[in-house]
Amino acid sequence: MSFTSSLIASLGVDAPITQSSFTYLTLAVVYGSILLYRGQKLRIPWYWYLALGFVDVQGNYLVNKAFQFSSITSVTLLDCWTVVWAIILTYIFIGTRYSLWQLFGAALCVLGLGLVLLSDAGVGGGDGSKPLLGDALVISGTLFFAMSNVGEEFCVKKKDRVEVISMLGLFGMLVSGVELSIFELRSLESVTWSTDIMLAGIGYTLSGFMFYTITPFVLKLSGATMFNLSLLTSDMWAVVVRILFYQQQVDWLYFLAFALVVVGLVIYSTT
């Protein structure tokens, strides 16, 4: 998802809400059809799904928007801030307890965040038109993603996964449709559509569909915090994409930050 989102931004398309709206549409159609076939009533009130859809849409918007200003490596590595929010929210609302070693492992992951910010502030020379603005958007988006992940974890551990995904798709589609009509119509009208843009959009939709399909299973098995820590391994691929596809150099601070993330993930998962 990060690669296709950064590719869409590099092609000159500024429509972050539109990107995710098609993913929500596919989720609503596929899993909503299964839910209708079952003929079952909702086990969780619809307004909770509306809230879940709302925070998820905001998270997608802020992170996708960040690709307009910052590099793919910065955006993906700064996703680690979701871990902090997930720990706080799961502790408060779900009652999850963490050992000191787990907190230490998570702290190492977050230390990588400081190195990325240091690089993007100019010490290491971050790429992007306004890297610090992009970083701020990502960090803001991670709070919404953490709320979405914790909400999903609570729902899938107590209720039906198909219902959760279908309702997230339905209300995510409705919320993004409203916001799109208010904020992005002018941006869409100015886009010169091409095959590359269409293929990148399809790639984003398909990868998003697979991501949202797999997420409930991981949340049920390991919880929101471990889920977000595991996602940090995608940073390695972001570095590969930046070097091979965008032909950009990667500052040495990114590699140090990634090493801290890996060590932190190992400590957290083994204690």
UniProtKB/TrEMBL annotation:
The keyword Transmembrane is annotated on this UniProt entry: yes
Residue ranges that the Swiss-Prot or TrEMBL entry lists as coiled coil: none
Record SUPFAM superfamilies: Multidrug resistance efflux transporter EmrE
GO MF terms held by the record: transmembrane transporter activity
GO cellular component assignments: membrane
TM helices/strands, residue ranges: 20-39, 46-63, 69-93, 100-119, 131-150, 162-185, 197-219, 252-270
The protein's name in its UniProt record: Solute carrier family 35 member F2 isoform 3
Origin species: Theobroma cacao (Cacao)
